[in-house]
Design a protein that fits this description.
heterodimer, A: 320 residues, mainly alpha, two-stranded antiparallel sheet, 2 strands, B: 349 residues, 76% helix
């Protein structure tokens, strides 16, 4: 039965099973939410490296409000608003003052890590966040749950997983089929031409960053009160940067961003499942490297060509 | 007063002061005494020889990695992946440090340092540098991705991988005495790495401002197209600038491994590479400015725990202050408009 002869055989069902797909979808959800947000921001021409900080802020505020007001729904709402508040700060620096977008993004990330760590200590001390913090509920989709195969994976999931799955086509429709979406893309491709056509470039960029903040805040809430019901220092753990990579790998398109996030989630789930498999000879650490390597190859045009919006990362100055 | 040279100094200094003010407000709002906090911070950073040595110990890797980031900024590039170059530098120097036996110290130590330098340089130049030069792949993303790959590589090596020391702790064997950077102040963690870092800053300054290569780097950074028309080989400058930058971050990892940690262990959130970006920005990409900024951040980090213990103010306040500093330095328009406004007020009074 062992095709490789003398080597210890791998029991594939230990690696590829329903739990793998459930973990993959769960890992992909915050990445996809933030990557969708990043798509809006970058389509209007603002490189949003600050998603990590917006997510982290959302994750903390979600727990704070959910625990204080005993309502996960209000926690989610507060997370979205706090992500948007960080987005306002980011937009103020990059759009109003035309500062370097990558540098201001780094500032937001360092600031958010400091603020959430500080507030966690100042409010909850060493005991950590309350164990009775309400979490966002899982919901069962009646028809879907009974389908064999995909039912166990898709039929019963956290509410934000469904919100994410819904936002993918909605974002695509918004960006590529509505007049506002068209204008936002125009601002990212050729702001001078958009300006001449009477479009307020900076206002639409502000909108793009704000949508990105809202979705990053939601992604943060999923991490703190969706998967768990607690907040730890730096619990987003670089997911904002990975979301940025997913957005790039997805070629600045909502469906692409989702597929890339799903791929990253799958790598994460595979690495997780491999930890339990003794006979496997590939370290989980190598599996975790795959998405990063693929992103580099995509950027270099080796696995596929990616094309950023032409004015991505360039502050708009009408006098030039 | 309004000359660019004065503003180059005024903006960072005011950014730091303003950040401390904002930090103080946060301390007050959370019910603590900001003065007590800052006094404890200052004492924890500079209060005695031991604390000062701690400050400088933290500053050394920040100086070296910060010089690396500043070098790419000068070339118009943004090496955000100093963290990864730092880790491959640590890996290579640790390996040479414990696996190569029978060499005298004056061969083994330089060899271990060189291994770290080369590893960091190649990590930055071979993939991010070459791809930037030939396909235009943005170095912000490629260097960041390379950082994650480096961290996973380090984790693989010491968590059950080929560099794991016998036992259950995920760490490499200790480097041999012949590969150890000796202490500068006995009884503290401050090693001769400090002297090395200051000498390196002098070399970087010399290369940037006194050599043809440095001139080309700065020219490419100011206007890549003009540099190309002037006959410079911009692709080669990009790759070399990334090589130098990675070399400096790799040296930071080597100095930390051979001088302070003495082995590779699981501390992958050390974040020296990320703070190095802040250091380079605050130092305005000038080698001496980078040294000064690194000492400031070394002091903030070394003083943070004293502040937490003595004044009860969470150490994370220091990260808030760091974030504010980058924000104000990056958005220097805020400082400039505040200055304009105060000058107008003064004129009217």
């Amino acid at each position: 039965m062992d095709p490789e002869g003398g080597r210890a055989s791998v029991n594939w069902s230990d690696v590829i099973n329903a739990q793998l797909w459930i973990t993959a979808l769960s890992s992909a959800t915050p990445l996809a939410l933030a990557a969708l947000g990043g798509t809006f921001s970058e389509r209007t021409g603002v490189v949003n490296i600050a998603m990590e900080g917006m997510m982290l802020t959302g994750a903390f505020i979600a727990v704070l409000v959910s625990a204080t007001l005993h309502s996960a729904a209000l926690g989610l709402l507060a997370a979205i608003l706090s992500g948007m508040a960080m987005a306002v700060l980011f937009a103020w620096g990059t759009i109003r003052f035309k500062a370097d977008q990558v540098v201001v993004g780094m500032a937001i990330n360092v600031l958010a890590a400091g603020l959430t760590g500080y507030l966690l200590n100042a409010i909850y001390g060493f005991t950590g966040t309350p164990p009775d913090t309400p979490r966002l509920p899982n919901v069962t989709i009646p028809g879907l749950a009974s389908i064999p195969g995909i039912g166990p994976v898709l039929g019963h999931q956290n509410v934000l997983v469904y919100v994410m799955l819904l936002l993918v086509p909605v974002s695509h429709y918004f960006l590529f089929r509505t007049p506002l979406g068209l204008r936002m893309r125009a601002v990212g491709e050729h702001p001078q031409a958009a300006d001449t056509a009477g479009i307020d470039v900076n206002r639409l960029r502000f909108l793009g960053v704000l949508i990105s903040g809202a979705l990053s805040g939601m992604a943060g809430a999923y991490i703190s009160i969706g998967i768990l019901n607690a907040f730890n220092v730096n619990m987003t753990n670089g997911r904002g940067y990975i979301a940025l990579a997913a957005m790039i790998f997805g070629n600045w398109k909502p469906v692409g961003a989702f597929l890339a996030a799903a791929l990253f989630g799958l790598a994460n789930a595979l690495a997780f499942n491999l930890q339990g498999v003794e006979a496997w000879h590939i370290s989980k650490d190598f599996v975790l490297m795959i998405p990063y390597a693929l992103t580099i190859l995509a950027l270099a045009g080796i696995v596929r060509r990616t094309t950023p919006p032409a004015a991505d990362g360039i502050p708009y100055d009408p006098h030039h | 007063m309004s000359s660019d040279r004065a503003m180059a100094l005024v903006v960072p200094v005011l950014s730091v002061l303003l950040s401390f003010v904002v930090g103080g407000i946060i301390v007050v709002v959370s019910g603590h005494d900001p003065l007590a906090a800052y006094v404890a911070l200052l004492h924890g950073a500079f209060g005695n020889v031991f604390n000062l040595a701690n400050t400088l110990t933290v500053a050394v890797p920040l100086m070296l990695a910060g010089l690396g980031v500043a070098f790419t900024f000068r070339a118009g590039l943004f090496n955000i992946g100093a963290e990864g170059q730092y880790w491959v530098g640590s890996i290579a120097s640790a390996w040479v440090g414990y696996a190569v036996h029978g060499l005298p110290v004056y061969v083994h130590l330089p060899l271990a340092l060189l291994a770290g330098v080369l590893a960091g340089a190649l990590w930055a130049a071979l993939i991010p540098g070459v791809l930037k030069a030939w396909t235009g792949a943005h170095e912000v993303i490629t260097t960041m991705m390379m950082s994650y790959i480096a961290i996973n590589l380090a984790r693989y090596l010491i968590e059950g991988g080929p560099m794991m020391a016998p036992g259950y702790t995920p760490q490499s064997p200790a480097v041999l005495p012949t590969a150890t950077l000796p202490a500068l102040i006995p009884g503290t963690q401050l090693s001769w790495g400090l002297v090395l870092a200051v000498l390196t800053a002098a070399v970087v300054w010399y290369v940037l401002y006194r050599t043809t290569f440095g001139f080309e780097v700065r020219a490419a950074g100011l206007n890549g197209r003009a540099a190309r028309y002037a006959g410079m080989h911009v692709a080669r400058i990009i790759v070399l600038a990334m090589f130098v930058s990675g070399a400096l971050a790799g040296l930071a990892g080597a100095v930390q491994t051979l001088g302070v940690n003495h082995r590779l262990f699981d501390a992958f959130n050390a974040g020296y590479g990320y703070t190095a970006i802040v250091v380079a920005l605050l130092g305005k990409n000038n080698p001496w400015g980078v040294l000064a900024a690194a000492v400031l951040f070394g002091a903030l980090n070394a003083g943070a725990s004293a502040m937490q213990m003595q004044a009860g103010v969470p150490a994370h306040l220091v990260d808030v202050v760091q974030g504010m500093i980058i924000f104000f330095v990056a958005v220097d328009g805020i400082i400039r408009s505040v200055l304009r406004w105060t000058r107008k007020e003064a004129a009217q009074a």
